[in-house]
Design the sequence.
């Protein structure tokens, strides 16, 4: 893989193609915070890549190399993991089997997808037990800075979702993946619910992955989130999505599907549904209770600030890297804060 695919973190935003720009502003903020926290920051080389198979030759066998792997939805261990100091991945390695209660077709496809994941991982099986591999959140994707959060009672959009349903058809659409099945059910449920309500919904669908295209209809995405009360975050190919993090960033109440058991998901205030047909009861309960809406919005803001914000991820990275150098060097105060979000 050439230089256009992988660059050091300090130059990545200037040299990577659009498809890899993703959340580089988020990671730039993380690196700036990490430089202030990590005593031996200058002794490390930080690389950002999508490849799990190789690194440019100039980075081979650098004992202080720290690699950030983005977008590997098949949960593979990078083939070079044993040759570098540490690997941080978003999404992480958790191959959690998230089933929907009573939905045979979806659950069957969940098992099929897990089998596909295991097949994808097989060439990497001999290094599956690397202890230098860590999960980190997606963060946000090229979003404007959050100067202040609009109070939830002043937001105009009650429920929103912007994204694709089936941007990569399998066998001409004859076979539907878990992502497609889940999102189709979510959209149908919202359509049915809103027919009998006076609430404002904003559901924008696309035939492609919106963040990988410069399409005018998605330029309004940040403005929609800033003005949304309840953000729907259905699964993609992987359980983890940008949308969940972005909803928290802008102070939305996020309703999502089951998430992997990563350290940063432990205290998430996201409302988890096993079946999108549960959505109407949640929407009615929330929208009819302004006080609960305010409490849950504050929980989202607190969760971002305490766990997902760049300085908190930098704290996690610093603590992890220092622990790897010397267990006694880690500072427990650098771990993400824990906040109790009542149900």
Sequence:
């Amino acid at each position: 893989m050439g230089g256009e695919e992988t660059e050091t973190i300090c130059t990545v935003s200037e040299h990577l193609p659009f498809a890899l720009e993703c959340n580089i502003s988020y990671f730039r903020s993380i690196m700036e915070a990490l430089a202030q926290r990590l005593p031996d920051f200058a002794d490390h080389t930080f690389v950002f890549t999508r490849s799990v198979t190789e690194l440019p030759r100039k980075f081979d066998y650098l004992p202080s190399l720290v690699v950030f792997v983005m977008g590997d939805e098949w949960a593979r261990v990078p083939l070079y993991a044993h040759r570098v100091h540490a690997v941080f991945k978003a999404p992480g390695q958790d191959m959690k089997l998230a089933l929907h209660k009573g939905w045979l077709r979806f659950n069957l496809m969940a098992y099929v997808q897990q089998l596909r994941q295991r097949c994808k991982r097989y060439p990497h099986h001999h290094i599956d037990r690397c202890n230098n591999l860590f999960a980190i959140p997606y963060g946000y994707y090229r979003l404007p800075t959050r100067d202040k959060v609009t109070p939830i009672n002043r937001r105009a959009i009650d429920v929103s979702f912007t994204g694709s349903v089936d941007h990569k058809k399998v066998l001409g659409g004859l076979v539907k993946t878990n992502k497609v099945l889940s999102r189709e059910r979510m959209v149908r449920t919202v359509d049915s619910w809103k027919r009998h309500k006076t609430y404002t919904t904003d559901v924008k669908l696309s035939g492609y992955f919106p963040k990988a295209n410069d399409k005018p209809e998605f330029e309004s995405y940040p403005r929609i989130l800033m003005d949304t009360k309840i953000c729907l975050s259905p699964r993609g190919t992987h359980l983890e999505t940008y949308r969940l993090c972005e909803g928290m960033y802008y102070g939305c109440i996020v309703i999502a599907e089951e998430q992997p058991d990563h350290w940063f998901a432990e205290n998430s205030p996201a409302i988890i549904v096993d079946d999108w047909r549960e959505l109407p009861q949640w929407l009615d309960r929330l929208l009819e209770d302004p006080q609960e809406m305010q409490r849950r919005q504050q929980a989202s803001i607190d969760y971002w600030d305490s766990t997902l914000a760049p300085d908190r991820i930098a704290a996690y990275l610093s603590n992890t890297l220092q622990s790897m150098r010397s267990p006694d060097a880690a500072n427990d105060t650098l771990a993400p804060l824990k906040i109790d979000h009542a149900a």
Remarks:
- The radius of gyration is 20 Å.
- The first helix runs from residue 12 to 15.
- The beta strands are 7-8, 45-49, 65-70, 86-90, 133-135, 157-164, 201-206, 228-233, 253-256, 271-272.
